[in-house]
Amino acid sequence: MENELLSLVPEYIPLGLGVYDRDGYLKYANNTTLKMFGVTMKDIYNINIFDDPNITAEDKELLKQGLNASFETDYDFDLCEKFYETAIKGIRKYFVTKVTIMQDSEGNRQGYILTCEDVTLKKMQEQKIIESYKKIKSTQKELSLALNAGKLTSWNYYVSEGMFYKFDVQVENIEKRSLQFIYESIHPDDRSKFVALLEAVTHKQKLPENKITLRVLEINSENYCYYSFVYSAVEDEEGRVVIITFIQRDITEDIIYQQNLIMAKNKAEEADKLKSTFLANMSHEIRTPLNAIVGFSELLTETDDTEEKLEYKQLIETNSEILLKLIGDILDLSKIEVGSIDINRQKLNLCQLCDELYRSFQQRIKNPKVTLKFINPYTKCVAYFDKYRFIQVFANFVTNAIKYTPQGEITMGYECTPERVRIYVRDSGIGIPDEKKHRIFNRFEKLDTFAQGTGLGLSICKAIADTTGGEVGFESKANAGSEFWYIGYSEVEYIEKSEMSDTEKSPKDIEHSLVTSSIKIKDLSILIAEDNNSNFLLIKKLLKDNQLTRAITGVEAIEKIKAQTFDIVFMDIRMPVMNGLEATASIREFNQITPIIALTANAFESDRENALAAGCNHFMTKPVKKHELMELLSKYCR
């Protein structure tokens, strides 16, 4: 057992070890040697020590005479190209080598043992220290300027005096501090580390690196700063350490930056976890309304009962709106990720818009135990907002109130000053516990995992508020309800109503306004540029009383418009051969009259701008709604 252990020693010592026979041929090298020279035993077996181009002729002569030799080699691997094969190319290393002659009991030479230590890193460090010290001695003025420019400070600690002297060109004004003063200025948790360093350097003990980081309280400062100290020792003729030179650098900003990076990394990891949860929730949320749409669509074709058909139709429409809301949230999330939420302010009649929203929200309440009330204290209110974002914030507030109000009342309203508009939604629902309030505006957060939704609505509201320079917030109490509000800043013109009782609307007050007239348009010549068969069939059914012509590509659409006069054109954006934007631009070169409506699944604001710039009269997103289609025909084909 002992022999086996001893046999392992050469393989695990940190020094390179090679054994040569009496004629100088290599017979053994340990793993450290093989790694050091980038070779295998097969590559170097039987190479001769006297052929090594990196050993001097003088040292080889000593070995031939049977004398031990020690030497330091600036080892050039390129010289070994014909000596042995190695993967190391184009570099030099510093090796401290010792060759011992092996002799038998009668003094006859039996071979050579070569030990080798790689001191490249140590040599480079020593060289840097030497060069730095020489530079300090020879170019004090230049060094002072360099230190000041690099925000560095140099200190010399004289061991025998126990004093620190600050490097300064003006020697007569040199600053000095006692060891005790320096000790007391260091953070209490770092003092033992500093004392251990001085002790180790003074007694020339080996240290893993020649730098240390300490927290120091400077004179007239209230907070500790982080400093990095690089040090080197100066010895006298007898080899005693007499001076320790410290180069001090303020790394406080670097430390803070690193801490911020760690915080950002932790937040990113947390966001990644939330995204995973979001994707799982999203799969469920998309499949739920999709299941209803597919299922009731199939049932709709199988029943002849008028009431059942109406019920199925309403369920399909409701779930379609839910699905569209989910897709809209995903699109907005992608914009939030890159910080490019589109804001397009326009003049809005808030009295009319909020009234329309109220009537729309009223249809979303299916729970008979919940009522929605609208407070409008103005006969006139005009402000400048992005209409879509204004609706989005209001809709998210109301949707959440509906989700979390099992019974009671929801109140939506708005109030103005000449410089701002505040919209709010109050409910008597379940409220928000104090321990969950800090998560309300986080992305992917759902306080109730069983509630429908993506957990994006309120975070999108927060992003809209930040982008528009507005504010968003809430007040809530568990089991007592919540109020969410958004403040948007704009020039506002408004006229208050004389009696507040007239400002409230209930469901019964607006029943008459929920009835909309059906617009019927027929006998129009319409070109549908659409490559998808299902989409074309849908439009064909919606516009069945008109004369429809189909084009599958942009090129085909151009040819048909040149050959025939149409009352209106519905142009898909994505088509083979030539897309809708290119086709529209080409048509406008010879036809400026025929209305062209962009009909596309691309829903970004940039898509709308590109379509209008190409020459389209209007931009309409899929899925197509019949009443919107009829309104467009009425507008452009009177």
TrEMBL record:
Keyword Manganese: yes or no? Answer: no
Keyword Kinase (UniProt): yes
Keywords, sorted A to Z: Kinase, Phosphoprotein, Transferase
Domain Histidine kinase residues, every copy = 281-484
- The catalytic activity of this protein is classed by the Enzyme Commission as 2.7.13.3
Which InterPro entries does this entry report, sorted A to Z?
CheY-like_superfamily, HATPase_C_sf, HATPase_dom, His_kinase_dom, HisK_dim/P_dom, HisK_dim/P_sf, PAS, PAS-like_dom_sf
Please state every residue range assigned to the domain named Response regulatory: 525-637
Q: Which residues carry this modification: 4-aspartylphosphate?
A: D572
Q: Which domain of life is it from?
A: Bacteria
Which NCBIfam families does the protein's record reference?
sensory_box
- Protein name per the record: histidine kinase
What organism does this protein naturally occur in? Bacteroides oleiciplenus
